[in-house]
Amino acid sequence: MSARTLSYLSRLAAGFALALLIASSAAAAEPASGTRTVLSTGTTVTNEPIRYPTGAAARINAVEITLAPGQQTGWHTHPVPLFGYILEGELTVDYGALGKRTFRKGDALVEAMNEAHNGRNTGRGPLKILAVFVGADGVPDTTSASPPPRP
Predict the structure, then answer these.
(1) Which of 15, 16, 128, 141 meets the CB 3.0–4.6 Å disulfide criterion with 87?
(2) What angle do CA 13, 15, 19 make, to 5 degrees?
């Protein structure tokens, strides 16, 4: 190939790459069709402001939790924000004096952080939860807790 042909092809490739970049930027600026906001909040289910841990590198852990009917999580807290999405089944969470809340398939939540709580599968079949912890290196996602006092 001649130098002139190579120069033309390289300019053509650069132009094509630029066109793709512009097209992808325009597409990213507009929400995709079929996009649905599942949850948008600045507070947890118990109205605590969401606070991110500081002082360490960010760490996101996404886990799928499965509980059999009647099985429970045990009393615990979350030192980091937790986004939860019920994939299947029914979850009832006891927040002590703050009451109980039930979440079903398709529900999304930001779980309580500093309020001790215990989740139980109150459905007839398996419960599956997608739990996304927005934490930091060295900070646990969950810690055991004692049940809160009852009024």
Answers:
(1) 128
(2) 115
The pLDDT tens digits of the residues spanning 24-68 come to 444 445 556 788 999 999 999 999 999 998 889 999 999 999 999
Residue 19 is encoded by which pair of tokens?
Answer: 């066109």
User: Which residue is listed with tokens 């529900």?
Assistant: 107
**Residue 59 and residue 132: Cα distance in Å, rounded?**
10
Give the pLDDT confidence score for residue 108 in this predicted structure: 98
Query: Comparing C-alpha atoms, which of 66, 67, 76 is closest to residue 117?
Result: 76
Pairing of β 76-77 and β 90-94 = unpaired
Q: Where are the alpha helices (DSSP H) in the chain?
A: 3-29
Domain 58-144 fold is Jelly Rolls (2.60.120)
Please report, for the chain, the start and end positions of each structural domain, with discontinuous segments joined by +.
1-35, 58-144
